[in-house]
Amino acid sequence: MSKYQHIQQAAYEANMQLPKLGLVLFTFGNVSAADRDLGVFAIKPSGVPYEDLTPGKMVIVDFDGNTVEGKLRPSSDTLTHAVLYKHWEKIGGIVHTHSTYGTAWAQSQRDIPIFGTTHADHLTVDIPCAPPMNDEMIKGNYEYQTGFQIMECLEQKGLSYEEVEMILVGNHAPFTWGKTPEKAVYNSAVLETVAQMAYLTEQIRKDVPKLQDSLIRKHYERKHGPHSYYGQ
Amino acid sequence: MSKYQHIQQAAYEANMQLPKLGLVLFTFGNVSAADRDLGVFAIKPSGVPYEDLTPGKMVIVDFDGNTVEGKLRPSSDTLTHAVLYKHWEKIGGIVHTHSTYGTAWAQSQRDIPIFGTTHADHLTVDIPCAPPMNDEMIKGNYEYQTGFQIMECLEQKGLSYEEVEMILVGNHAPFTWGKTPEKAVYNSAVLETVAQMAYLTEQIRKDVPKLQDSLIRKHYERKHGPHSYYGQ
Amino acid sequence: MSKYQHIQQAAYEANMQLPKLGLVLFTFGNVSAADRDLGVFAIKPSGVPYEDLTPGKMVIVDFDGNTVEGKLRPSSDTLTHAVLYKHWEKIGGIVHTHSTYGTAWAQSQRDIPIFGTTHADHLTVDIPCAPPMNDEMIKGNYEYQTGFQIMECLEQKGLSYEEVEMILVGNHAPFTWGKTPEKAVYNSAVLETVAQMAYLTEQIRKDVPKLQDSLIRKHYERKHGPHSYYGQ
Amino acid sequence: MSKYQHIQQAAYEANMQLPKLGLVLFTFGNVSAADRDLGVFAIKPSGVPYEDLTPGKMVIVDFDGNTVEGKLRPSSDTLTHAVLYKHWEKIGGIVHTHSTYGTAWAQSQRDIPIFGTTHADHLTVDIPCAPPMNDEMIKGNYEYQTGFQIMECLEQKGLSYEEVEMILVGNHAPFTWGKTPEKAVYNSAVLETVAQMAYLTEQIRKDVPKLQDSLIRKHYERKHGPHSYYGQ
C-alpha cells in the first residue's frame, strides 16, 4: 500500500466534485492535494475522463514538479501547482477549471468587481485577473511561469494568498486554492457563482457602484477572523 | 420528544426544498418556521450542509433572538428572522437565499419592475429593493438592523407585508416570507423566476413599459382576494 | 368508466411533459386534449401540482366552457382553450406555459424575428405577439377575450392557425396548439428554444438580418407540405 | 448479421451522446460513422426520437448519398454528410446539431472570435461561419450544396479540415467532424461551450482583444502536433 494513499484519496474525491458541481466539461480541470510533511502532492492524470478516475491513478509529484510515483502522466498544469505549493507554505489543495463565467471574465481580462455580500463573504477585494503573460514567458516554461504570474499578480496588488484564495489568469481561466483540496473546490464553485452574479449585475445596471467598505468588512468578518460567528 | 418537533420538521422540509429548487449553492440560504402560540421559531443551524441536516438539528429561537433549544449555533441571519416574526404577527415562515438572478438585482440596487402577468399573479407592485444600510447600522447589530431595514422599506413605500411577501436587500440578496414556511419557499422560487424574466425582458427591449393597471389587478385578483378563482 | 377516459389520459400525459421539458415552475402552465366528436376537452385542474395529477383529475369541459364532468375546478385559463377549440376546428390540443424566454419576449411585446432554420423548420414567419388587451376586455370576461385576442392577431396578420401553431400574448406568455396535445407540447418546447436563440442572436449582433425567403421556404417545405422529406 | 454492424453501433452510441450532453432538443441533430474501406457510413434515421433509436435502425449510405441498407429514411441532412466524406478522406465521423449558443452565432453570421485558451486548446483560428448560400443553391440540391458551402468556406480561408474540425453554417447551425464519431461529438460539445464563453466575454467587455499568437500556438501545441504533452 502506497504511503501516499491518503492524498490520492483526497485528490480523487476533490476531482470528482468538479463535474458534480458543473465546473468542468470533459477533462477541462484538475485538483491536487498536498502532504506538506512528505513534500509531495497527488494530482489528476492528464486527459483521463472523470468517470475513469480511481484514487490509484492520481500521480504523486514533488514541489519541483518531478513525478515521484505513478504510471500515468500528470496533468499538463502540474508545474503551476508545484510552483504554488513550493512558495505558499500554508496551502493544501489547488484547483484549476475552465468554468463558464469565470473563464469569460478571464477572457475579458477584467477583475471581477465586488458588488455584493456573496462576494464579501469570501474576500474583501475584487477577484484579481492576472494579465496575460508576455511572449517570452509563454514560449518558455509556460506552466511554470503561470505559477509565477499568479504570485506576482497578488504581490503587485498587495494581496495575501491566505486571504484571497482565487484568481483569474488573463485569457485563460480560474485557479483557486485553500488549506485543503475540499476548500479549494469550494472556492472554485464560489468564484463561478460570483462571476455569474457580477456579469448579470452589470447587465441590469451599467453604472453599478461597488460594495461599501463597512459592508465588505462586516460580511467578511462574520465568516473569517477572530470574531467570526458563522458555522459551528 | 421535543414540543417543538412540528416546527423542526416543517423547517427541515422547507430548507430541503431550497437545493431541490436550485435556489442555493452550498449553505447560502436558510428557512425558519414559527409557532406563534409558543412564541418561537425553528431555524437552520449555521453553515451546516443541506445533506447533513435532520429535523432535530433545527435550532429553536424566540422572537428576541435567544436560543431556547438546540445544541448547534443558529443561522447567522437569525436576528433578521426574529425581528420580522416579532413585528409581523401573521407570518409563519421566512426564507433567505442568494439565488442568482434575485441577487443580481439586489446588487444592482434596483426594484424589479412589474413587466408581466407572472409577476402580477403574485404582487401588484415592483418587487422592492431596500437601500443598503448606512455604515452605523452595519457596524452595529447588523442582522438585527437588516430586519428593520426591510420593515422600513415596505413602510416608506406604503406596502403591506401581507400583500408583498418578498424583498431584495440592496447589495445583499432576497428575503421572502409567508403564512407558512412552504409559502415562503414558494415565494423565493417565484422571485427568482420573475427576476430572470425581468432581466431578459430589458435585454430584449430597452424601453419596455410596465404592465397596465387593469391587467395587474385582474391577475392578482384571479389568485387573491374575495373573488379569486384560481386553485381548488 | 368515463367515456372521456381517452382524452383524460392524453391530457394527463401531455401535462406531465411540461415539467419534464423544463417549461413550467410549480403550476404555471396547462394542457388540454379535445375530442371533436364528443365536443369536449379534458384540461388540467386549477392550481394542482404536477406531482399530484392523475388522469382522473382532468376536468371535462365543453367548447362553451361549461364543466361536463369532474369534481375539481378546471384551469383558470379554461375559457381561452374553449374559445380556440370552438373556432379552430382542426386542433386537438392546446398548451399554455410561462416558459422563461417565451415569456420575456411576450413581456417585451415583440414578435420573435425569424433568424434561422431552427425557426423556419416550424413556421415561415415571425412568431407573432398579440398586443395586450384594452382595459375593457381585461375587466370583462378576461380569459374568454384572451382567446379572441389570439384569433384576431392571426387574422390581422393574415396567418392560418394550421400553419402558425404558436403565439405570444403581450405582457402575458405563450400559447401553442396542434392537431394533438403532444404536438402542442412539442410546439411549446420549440417556441422556448427559438425564443432563447433569437435573444442570443440579437445580443451577439445588434443589426442581424432576418432569414432570406428561399431558405425559409426550403426548410419549412422539408418538414411540411406535399414534398416534405423529413421523418418516416 | 449485417457487415455494417460496427458502424451502426458506433453511430448509435455517438448519437445517444447528443441528448446526454445537452446538445439537442427532440430530433434536432444527427451523427454518422463511416467505414472507409467499405465506402459507406451509418447515419441516424430522419425524425426518429433518440429514445427510440437502436443500432439496427441506423441507415447505411454510400458516399454519393445512396441508401445501401436499412428500412428507414436516413437523416434529411444525409447528402451533406456524403459530400464531406467523399472529399475529406481522413474523417470518420460527422455531427450536426442545433445547439443553443452555436446556433445563435450561426444566426448572427459571425465567426466565433478566439478569445481564450479553451478555444486555442482545439483550434488556432476563429471558428469559421460559412455565409448563407445564394437562392439558387438553396432551391437546388440544398443539402448537397451545404456540403460544398462548408468545403468552400474552409478553402477560401486557407484552413485544413484536419486542423479545423468545426464550422457554423450561416443562418443554420454547427457541423463538426473528426477521425471518429466520438471525436466529432466531442468537437460539438467544445464548439458549444466556446460559443457560450465568447458570447459572455463580449457582454462583459465590448472591445475585448483576441488571443495573442504565442498563447494560441502554445495551447494548441500542448494538445496537438509532434511535441504535444497533453493526455496519456
Which range best describes the helical content of chain A: under 10%, 10-25%, 25-40%, 40-55%, 55-70% or over 70%?
40-55%
Number of helical segments with 4 or more residues of chain A: 8
What CATH calls the topology of chain A is L-fuculose-1-phosphate Aldolase
Question: How many domains of chain A?
Answer: 1
CATH architecture of chain A: 3-Layer(aba) Sandwich
Number of strands of chain A: 8
What is the multimeric organization of the chains shown?
homotetramer
CATH class of chain A: Alpha Beta
Note poorly predicted spans of chain A.
none
- Work out the strand percent of chain A: 5-15%
Major sheet size, sense and barrel closure of chain A: 8 strands, mixed
The outline of chain A comes out as globular
Give the N-terminus to C-terminus distance of chain A in angstroms. Answer: 36 Å
| Succession of helices and strands of chain A | HEEEEHEHHEHHEEHH
The helix/strand class of chain A is alpha+beta
Catalytic activity (chains A, B, C, D): L-ribulose 5-phosphate = D-xylulose 5-phosphate
InterPro entries (chains A, B, C, D): Aldolase_class_II_sugar_metab (IPR050197), Aldolase_II/adducin_N (IPR001303), Aldolase_II/adducin_N_sf (IPR036409)
Protein name (chains A, B, C, D): L-ribulose-5-phosphate 4-epimerase
Enzyme class (chains A, B, C, D): isomerase
